[in-house]
Design a protein that fits this description.
Length: about 280
């Protein structure tokens, strides 16, 4: 497997990112979200979930409402899978996120191949492991601590909301966080701290926060990063220091896409749930 040319796959992914026909050019952001949701199901207690296995190919996981809209990202990567059939979906989806981040001006994120796709749906993690945007700091902590992240990493990862937007028909929230959502910067943190945010109800009836011109938004979970004092310390650091944000984001995203991926001597990931873990699924 080490003979495979992953650089060639990355080059093909890079080509599909500028795409004026999709969502104001937001192919990159939805690819980043796919990599995150494929990985963010991880549970460190049982070792279940995570990117290895590409379990979102199965109905139980793809139909989790948190994953609404990610069918676009999976579809964008299909021609690349057809061109390089030797790459696993789990490697392709995580590589897609990493390539998109860099192509949109973000940091280089260390990525390793070797994930192996499951052949049936017996290891699909249960729905409900991804965060719920209508909640606050306690909820985010319980979700991300379950994956093994700390407060600093939670804030760094949340900086991905510099990218893309919310779609009412997918998540029940509406709008972009920043004026240029296809450029990876630390603007999200600056806006969180320095813009006026007013709570309102969106057209679907959910509460979110609006900038004074109504063009930009924050989710309730985003706002908890400034109201919670421990999170806020990191928001302030990342708003003031783009390079620190890039460095910490890169490390945290790289950790995210490695969750649950244990490679054997051949470099291939092992599928290895204990009986206890299996019983808990
Ligand atoms: Zn998001 N995210 N996210 N996120 N996310 C959305 C969109 C995007 C939360 C969340 O509920 C939502 C992380 C963390 C958290 C991206 C990346 C990452 C949307 C809008 C919601 C509701 C979906 C829609 O309507 O299409 C919550 C509660 C989070 C926890 C605190 C992390 C971590 C991410 C990556 C590292 C990205 C790139 C998008 C934009 C997707 C797009 O299609 O434009």
């Amino acid at each position: 497997m080490t003979d495979h040319d992953y650089g060639a796959v990355a080059a093909e992914i890079k080509k599909i990112i500028p795409n004026d026909d999709y969502d104001d050019g937001s192919t990159g952001p939805v690819l980043v979200r796919l990599a995150w949701h494929a990985s963010g199901t991880y549970d460190k207690e049982t070792g279940t979930g995570g990117s290895n296995g590409a379990t979102m190919r199965y109905k139980i996981e793809s139909s989790d409402s948190a994953n609404n809209g990610l069918e676009y990202a999976r579809k964008f990567l299909e021609p690349i899978k057809a061109k390089f059939p030797w790459i696993s979906y789990s490697d392709l989806w995580t590589l897609g996120g990493v390539v998109a981040i860099e192509a949109m001006g973000g940091p280089k994120v260390p990525w390793k191949p070797g994930r192996v796709d499951d052949v049936d749906d017996q290891y699909v993690p249960p729905n409900g492991r991804l965060p719920d945007a209508s909640q606050g700091a306690d909820h985010i902590r319980s979700i991300f601590y379950r994956m093994g992240f700390n407060d600093q990493e939670i804030v760094a990862l949340s900086g991905a909301h510099n990218l893309g937007r919310c779609h009412g028909d997918r998540s029940g929230f509406e709008g972009p966080w920043v004026p240029n959502p296809i450029r990876f910067t630390n603007t999200y943190f600056k806006l969180l701290l320095h813009a006026e945010w007013v709570k309102g109800k969106n057209s679907v009836g959910n509460e979110q926060f609006y900038s004074d011109d109504g063009e930009l938004m924050m989710l309730p979970t985003d706002m908890s990063l400034v109201t919670d004092p421990k999170f806020r310390v990191w928001v302030e650091k990342y708003a003031a220091d783009r390079d620190l944000f890039f460095k910490d984001f890169s490390a945290a995203f790289s950790k995210l896409i490695e969750l649950g991926v244990t490679r054997g001597p051949e470099g291939l990931a092992l599928r290895k749930y204990s009986t206890v873990a299996r019983a808990r699924l």
